[in-house]
Amino acid sequence: MMTRITEDNLFGVIIKGSLGLLAILTLAGYALFSLKIGLGILAGGIIAMVNFIWMHNVLQRILGLLPPKPNLYAQMRFIARITVTGLILYVIITSGWFSLTGLLVGLSVIVANIIALSLYRALRTGG
């Protein structure tokens, strides 16, 4: 039995689907290419998902708490998220343990899953 996708469970569906896609791509990258590509895909996927979850949490806080200056709050969180992501990507790229190609594939996991979900919903609703 398939779970119906609604606005209430969309975030969970995206995360679960992305985890499944990440697992498949990581194993395929390792099995078909090399350990470096598999690790790159895994690292990129984890970074993408942590970013997606972090962004979701910030938006939930802004909409739920309504801080005094929501623009400043959002900007500070955005700068923090981009800075942390940039530092992590720098360490990963310069370490030599990860494939850049695999990293780019992994970073695309959330986007690929959202596109697939959009196509699925469009086809299910006829348009």
List the helices and strands and how they pair.
Layout: H1 10-32, H2 35-65, H3 70-95, H4 100-107, H5 109-125
Helix pairs in contact: 1-2, 1-5, 2-3, 2-4
Runs in which pLDDT lies below 50 for 5 or more consecutive residues are: none
> Taking all residues together, what is the mean pLDDT?
92
Beta-strand residue percentage: under 5%
Global morphology: flat
Strand element count: 0
Order of helices and strands: HHHHH
Biggest sheet record:
none
Rg over CA atoms:
17 Å
Oligomeric state of shown chains = single chain
Number of helices: 5
Structural class: mainly alpha
Q: Supply the number of structural domains.
A: 1
Helix percentage: over 70%
Cα-to-Cα separation, first versus last residue: 23 Å
Keywords:
5 helices; mainly alpha; 127 residues
What this model shows, in words?
This protein is mainly α and 127 residues long. The chain is built from five helices and no strands. It has one domain (11-117). It has helices spanning 10-32, 35-65, 70-95, 100-107, 109-125. Helix 1 packs across helix 5, helix 2 (35-65) packs antiparallel against helix 3 and helix 2 (35-65) packs parallel to helix 4 (100-107). The longest helix is centred in the middle third of the chain and has 31 residues, at 35-65.
